[in-house]
Amino acid sequence: MQFKSLYxxxxxxxxxxxxxxxxxxxxxxxxxxxxxxxxxxxxxxxxFKNDIEYCNIKIPVNRQDVKERLxxxxxxxxxxxPQVILWIKRAARFFPHVENILKQHGLPLxxxxxxxxxxxxxxxxxxxxxxxxxxxFLKSTGRHYGLRIDSKVDERRNIFKSTHAACKYLKALEKxxxxxxxxxxxxxxGEYGLKKEIAAQKxxxxxxxxxxxxTQRYAFKIICAKLILENSELxxxxxxxxxxxxxxxxxxxxxxxxxxxxxxxxxxxxxxxFKTIKDYNPELRGYYLDKGGITILIPKGKAKGFKHEFTARxxxxxxTYKTKFHIVKNGESLTGIANKYQISLYSLLKLxxxxxxxxxxxxxxxxxx
Length: 369
Known about the structure:
Layout: H1 2-24, H2 30-38, H3 42-45, E1 53-54, E2 57-58, H4 64-79, H5 81-104, H6 113-119, H7 139-144, H8 159-177, H9 180-189, H10 191-201, H11 213-230, E3 250-257, E4 261-262, H12 263-270, H13 274-280, E5 288-289, E6 292-299, H14 306-320, E7 325-327, H15 334-340, H16 345-351, E8 365-367
Antiparallel strand pairs: 1-2, 3-6, 4-5, 7-8
Helix pairs in contact: 4-11, 5-8, 6-11, 8-9, 9-10, 9-11, 12-14, 15-16
């Protein structure tokens, strides 16, 4: 015990012997020097020297309240540097496609930063309120703007279809409120809520409106995302081209069948894992393609020879595919039907792409085997 105490005293003395002269000399520790060389001081990052615009709207940073709100969101974003790095990497993958769709709809390219803030460009992002996908659509809004959302497909997770839907929605909101900043506020809080606040406050100037705190921050987060990604090196994000994720490229495959095709059959024909099909088509739910016509994406170059390989595999599968069906009658339940055919409820649900809460109706045809 005495030896351990003596050892601690010697160790502390050595630390003080080297640390005190360093502190007194005013020399910064190496770790601080390195961090300052890696990226600019935070105070320098919020000294706005040039005009800032978003969707051709000049942001009035000469107004103290606006400046404070912008500073806050920029500092918070820059603090989470790993997240910003992922933003930059994922933007390289998806922004070319998003920009192309925005151009088709005649919308400002600055709107591409909306899904960056909404989901960090993650297809499976979801909120506690039930918003899902890149643009965080609620079911009702997504369906209203043409997205298919059911037990087999959720197109909120499709970057192309959800972006087209978002463009239609944002265009309608801008037409209704006369400003893209107000349109974004309505996108975040709902059209009815924004109309109510404008009427109550007798004011439709975005920067002077008092809105729910989340909505007050929303547009400023998007503006800061634009600032950072358009000036990434200025903020210390010196990524090489090889650091970026490659642009999302793919081949399209069209299917039309009266049967539900196992996704694994497609994966085998394309010589890729089942996971790759799901990664390229995050909107697909379950293990089967739905009946009827559907288009899926596979990695670029994998379409060559696919049709021949798939046709052969499909014929073999179809020969061994002996399906037994049950027509639902009045008063029947999923549990009762599973017991009748001596299969587990889980198997019955999986075969029919149903959830535990799934509804069945008289006349429905359920796959039993």
